[in-house]
Fold this protein.
Amino acid sequence: MTVDLAGLLAGDEDAFRDLVRAHQATMMRLALLHVRSVADAEEVVQETWLAVLQGIDGFEGRASLRTWICRILLNIARRRAGQESRSVPMSGLPGADGGPTVDPDRFISAGPNAGHWSVPPRRWGRQPEDLLLAGELRELLGDAVRQLSPGQREVITMRDVEGWTSTEVCELMEISEGHQRVLLHRARARVRQTVEAYLERQSSPAT
Amino acid sequence: MHELTCAQMVESITDYLEGALPPDELESFRAHLLSCDGCDAYLDQMRSTVRLLRAAPGHRLPVAVESAIVRTFREWNGTRADQ
Ligand SMILES: [Zn+2]
């Protein structure tokens, strides 16, 4: 990435275009976590590149270039989202902020086996992957991520969709490893629950 | 070794997958997993969830937007050259 940056500073337009292309998918995805429309996300990406260019001399190379760019984008997207919907309260879903991430009714509540599964999870096998091709599950997954808290949404997207390391995500969000894990845990548990509920509906039709 | 309930297992699963469990807890976690099909299935489901997320579709930046960004670069480059 240092090569790209050097090219950039030398005014190499092709190098810059490569950089824009290399990061477009991640930037759009990250923007869409906070703004509603694709057009708004495109504006956020545009605004980000302007801010990147204006601030390029301040890039010290302590974080990776992509982390630095995405942090700028995140600030712009968050600010925009804040202006749009300050009054919308955060989801009061179970397990959103604290408490168990699996419905306590799934466990035996008393006796020698307390805390063990009463309704154990079943094995999914290849079923979700096969259903993913049909598209409905794909949409459902997107909705599930959008319904998470902003922090959970950012962590699960960067870790599991984009495949960033926990170190990078901590740098991006300026949070600790421990906090990152808590957000990831709650987010994954929530999405798992959505998939499970969907698969149950699939196997028990017409109810 | 400390025995874990399934309810505790599900809350440790991300720490396990992240390699963040301290050695003694890791030992308890693994021991439980070997003897509990429900928790093993839950772990499978979590891994499956991550795989599903990885397949999420993305949006491409339209050519017009990319061109606008490159124009911004050209202007920025021009003002830098002037200085
Ligand atoms: Zn168990």
User: Anything to note?
Assistant: The first helix of chain B runs from residue 6 to 17.
